[in-house]
């Protein structure tokens, strides 16, 4: 009976949410639709393509404590890089978790707010998922479906925990808790930012529960903290067992390298960047979120309904975009900052829902909706353009690679039966007039990315050439340095000069892409 009741409630919720779901799907397709017809892949993917069938293919992710990502990729059969399948599943999971989060918040919503919540629930997903942060994240083809699926697990886990509380039978209660904790451990093992997104989601649920039940709900908070601690402990233990001494950190840990003062300065500049709405990832939405929660706290104080738990939840929500910076003491890659657009989305949705309760505030509510739609459109536009940029740069790299190899094969000294090392000196990034945006990774050429490191761009470029069927060997750091000295001493002209391609020591093809390196 309980299962039937829950199923009927969810189906009834879906029936009442048809308009919102249509709007959500529209914005998701606007932002991510190009992915469904794209065959390009991102930086990093070329390395994994070349390791298909090797034992060490997943070792990098395991060393990063992302063993869950390896497990899900095996489950989704991402072993031969089915680009369409990966992108299709990603878009499907984005739509699914948009609905999942909204249903979760609906179950926590105070009864008198539910009608307006159903009307305006589309606000949260169209602000959350369309932010260019997710263009950066979901551009990584080999992990996009698994990460999107893991985000979907968050509302599912919290709904299962709530379901456990409703059971009187101990075995059913414990079974739900075991399932929830197992899924939570798995989700932590996929991508570290999911851990922080889970905390932010719990903070929102806690706030809504306080408003609904008019008390501090300490028991609920304690239970959530206990479940989180158990899952986090097991996650780290599993990671340590699998990675052993090979554990590495993808994130910069400034607290271990710099003074406390320097880390606080770093965090200050992160906060400043968000508040000043710098770049394409940040917008006025977070400032509106701050205003929303300040107004909420003042309202609750005036009405004498304020609870200490509300302040804890409010601080937890507003600080969420900076969790990862606070933990590491330095700004991180934008693709790790899921919580930024999550907080913007949930804050502005709740603002409109609460404003809709007051007929006198109808004009303010309508203005807020217009601003929200403008932000969502702008975000979606940026995200779509980033994916377009990624496609154009990929096609340009393919064309350049074929042109380059055609010139190599024309050389009289070239022997197709011999194994060569190829060494690129400098970099090549074609200026494309139809590329509108460039972000942290998107828009970077395989023949330019990482060019400043000890191997130059050679690892990226040579791995990319291998995906096209050109099996050259990579140089060592010493051979790369020798090649740089060689092109200077012999005054080799940079590409596209016909002498830019030379043979060194009979087995090393040296290509000078540019004068700078």
What does this structure look like?
The protein is mostly helical and 517 residues long. Helices cover 64% and strands 3% of the residues. It has helices at 2-16, 18-32, 45-49, 59-63, 67-75, 83-108, 114-120, 123-128, 132-138, 141-166, 170-188, 192-213, 218-243, 254-257, 260-275, 285-302, 308-318, 323-328, 338-355, 362-410, 458-467, 477-489; strands at 421-425, 501-504, 508-512. A 3-stranded mixed β-sheet has the order 1-3-2. β2 and β3 form a beta hairpin. α2 packs antiparallel against α6. The protein is elongated and about 85 Å long. The N and C termini lie far apart (70 Å). The mean pLDDT is 90.
Order of helices and strands: HHHHHHHHHHHHHHHHHHHHEHHEE
Distance between the termini: 70 Å
What is the helix fraction of residues, given as a range?
55-70%
Structure annotation, total helices: 22
Structural shape: elongated
Biggest sheet: strands side by side, in what order? 1-3-2
Q: Structural class of the helix and strand makeup?
A: mainly alpha
Q: Which oligomerization state do the chains in this entry correspond to?
A: single chain
Mean pLDDT across all residues, rounded? 90
Strand proportion, as a percent range, falls in under 5%
Whole-angstrom Rg: 26 Å
Compute the number of strand runs.
3
Uncertain regions spanning at least 5 consecutive residues: none
What profile does the largest beta sheet have?
Answer: 3 strands, mixed
Give a nutshell description of this structure.
By secondary structure, this protein is an all-alpha fold. It has helices spanning about 1-15, 20-30, 45-50, 60-65, 65-75, 85-110, 115-120, 125-130, 130-140, 140-165, 170-190, 190-215, 220-245, 255, 260-275, 285-300, 310-320, 325-330, 340-355, 360-410, 460-465, 475-490; strands at about 420-425, 500-505, 510.
């Amino acid at each position: 009976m309980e299962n039937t009741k829950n199923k009927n409630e969810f189906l009834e919720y879906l029936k009442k949410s048809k308009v919102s779901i249509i709007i959500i799907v529209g914005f998701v397709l606007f932002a991510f639709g190009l992915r469904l017809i794209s065959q390009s892949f991102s930086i990093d993917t070329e390395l994994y393509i070349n390791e298909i069938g090797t034992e060490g293919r997943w070792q990098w992710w395991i060393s990063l404590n992302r063993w869950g990502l390896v497990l899900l990729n095996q489950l989704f059969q991402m072993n031969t890089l089915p680009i369409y399948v990966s992108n299709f599943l990603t878009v499907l999971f984005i739509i699914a978790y948009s609905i999942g989060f909204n249903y979760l918040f609906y179950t926590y919503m105070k009864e008198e707010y539910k009608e307006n919540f159903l009307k305006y629930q589309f606000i949260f997903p169209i602000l959350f998922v369309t932010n260019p942060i997710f263009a950066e994240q979901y551009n990584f083809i080999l992990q996009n479906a698994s990460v999107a699926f893991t985000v979907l697990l968050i509302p599912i886990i919290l709904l299962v925990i709530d379901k456990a509380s409703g059971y009187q039978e101990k075995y059913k209660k414990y079974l739900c808790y075991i399932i929830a904790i197992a899924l939570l451990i798995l989700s932590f093992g996929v991508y570290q930012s999911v851990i922080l997104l889970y905390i932010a989601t719990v903070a929102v649920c806690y706030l809504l529960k306080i408003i609904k039940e008019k008390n501090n709900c300490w028991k609920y908070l304690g239970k959530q903290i206990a479940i989180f601690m158990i899952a986090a402990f097991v996650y780290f233990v599993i990671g340590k067992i699998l990675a052993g001494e090979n554990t590495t950190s993808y994130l910069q840990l400034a607290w271990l390298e710099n003074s406390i003062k320097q880390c606080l300065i770093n965090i200050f500049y992160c906060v400043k960047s968000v508040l000043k709405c710098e770049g394409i990832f940040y917008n006025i939405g977070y400032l509106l979120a701050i205003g929303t929660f300040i107004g909420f706290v003042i309202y609750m104080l005036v009405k004498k309904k304020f609870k200490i738990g509300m302040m804890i939840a409010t601080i937890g929500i507003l600080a969420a975009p900076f969790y990862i910076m606070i933990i590491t003491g330095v700004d991180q890659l934008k693709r790790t900052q899921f919580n930024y657009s999550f907080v913007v989305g949930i804050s502005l949705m709740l603002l409109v829902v609460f404003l809709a309760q007051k007929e006198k505030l109808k004009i303010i509510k309508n203005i807020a909706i217009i601003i929200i739609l403008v932000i969502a459109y702008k975000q979606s536009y940026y995200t779509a353009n980033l994916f377009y940029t990624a496609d154009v740069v990929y096609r340009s790299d393919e064309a350049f690679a074929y042109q380059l190899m055609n010139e190599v094969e024309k050389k009289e000294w070239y022997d197709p039966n011999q194994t060569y090392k190829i060494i690129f000196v400098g970099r090549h990034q074609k200026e494309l007039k139809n590329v509108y945006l460039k972000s942290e990774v998107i828009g970077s050429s395989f023949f330019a990315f990482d060019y400043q490191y000890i191997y130059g761009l050679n690892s990226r470029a040579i791995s990319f050439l291998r995906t096209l069927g050109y099996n050259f060997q990579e140089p060592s750091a010493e051979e790369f340095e020798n090649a740089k000295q060689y092109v200077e001493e012999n005054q080799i002209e940079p590409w596209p000069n016909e002498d830019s391609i030379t043979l060194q020591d009979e087995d090393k093809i040296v290509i000078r892409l540019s004068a700078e390196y």
